[in-house]
Amino acid sequence: MSQDDTQPTPPALSDSASDTPDTHSTGAHMPARERSVVGTVGVALMGAGLRSARPLQKIVLGGVGAGLVALAATGRNPLATALKIRQNKEGEVLVSDAVTVGKPAAELYAVWRDLAGLPRLMTHLERVEVLDAGRSRWTVKAPTGEVSWEADITADEPGQRLAWASVEGAAVPNHGEVLFRAAPGHRGTEVVVRLTYRPPAGTAGAIVARLTGEEPAQQLRDDLMRFKREQELGFAPTTEGQSSGRAPQGGAA
Q1: Longest Cα pair distance anywhere in the chain, in angstroms?
Q2: Can you tell me the distance from the alpha carbon of 62 to that of 167, in angstroms, rounded to the nearest whole number?
């Protein structure tokens, strides 16, 4: 296993508002190691099918094996593509979103710079423990339970940009950044969040996370909208504890 297969690529500096992660996305792309494993399993199943004396088993094993070999050959996972999972050429999953908040960039940056408070903004985070001025330990929810790693701050530009990357050996290699830009028409600040991570089980791991509701892309939009409401209104409106307005059975509304 090469270092390139396990470590995240440090985030590049962003100089333009039009520089988005989409420019690096290749859709659902299986990394070389995952393609090798899938291809090997496919060949093994095809061989088992050819050796089987049962006609039905021969067809099923041969068909599944041939399908896996085809996936390995193309390097594309159609299920991941259907679920709109975006990956770069290295097999890292790309997550990004943005929201405009009617407040100055300096105030919003200060909220994000409080790393220990990030779980209040990002629901997939369980906790962030600040270890020193530049390093912290992150714990997130995962389909298999909690996963923790340490990360270093890689860029800190007050009022403009905050970036971080996991240290070597992280269970989930990742990096991310938050950009604070002046919104058009003096409407406040555009907050852009970009996350990149390498799922433990490759594309299959990303699919499992998406199907179980633990994929960060599903949660980021809600997190940013809640952040906007909290900053502009001072609270996040919720329907919890409110009646549905439906009439009880046998009675009038």
Answers
A1: 74
A2: 43
Whether residue 2 has pLDDT greater than 70: no
Amino acid identity of 148? S
The pLDDT value recorded for residue 122 is 82
Across 15-29, 73-87, 133-147, least confident range? 15-29
Nearest to 227 by CA among 73, 70, 99, 117: 99
* Helix ranges, the chain (H): 3-6, 32-51, 55-74, 78-82, 105-113, 202-211, 216-233
Q: How far is CA 171 from CA 138, 168, 184, in A?
A: 11, 9, 40
Report pTM: 0.64
Q: In whole angstroms, how far apart are CA 93 and each of 96, 110, 158, 223?
A: 10, 27, 27, 19
Q: Are 70 and 174 in contact (CB under 8 A)?
A: no
Mapped onto helix, strand or coil, the DSSP state of residue 245 is: coil
Under DSSP, the state recorded for 91 is: S
What pLDDT score does 236 carry?
Answer: 62
Residue-level pLDDT at 60: 83
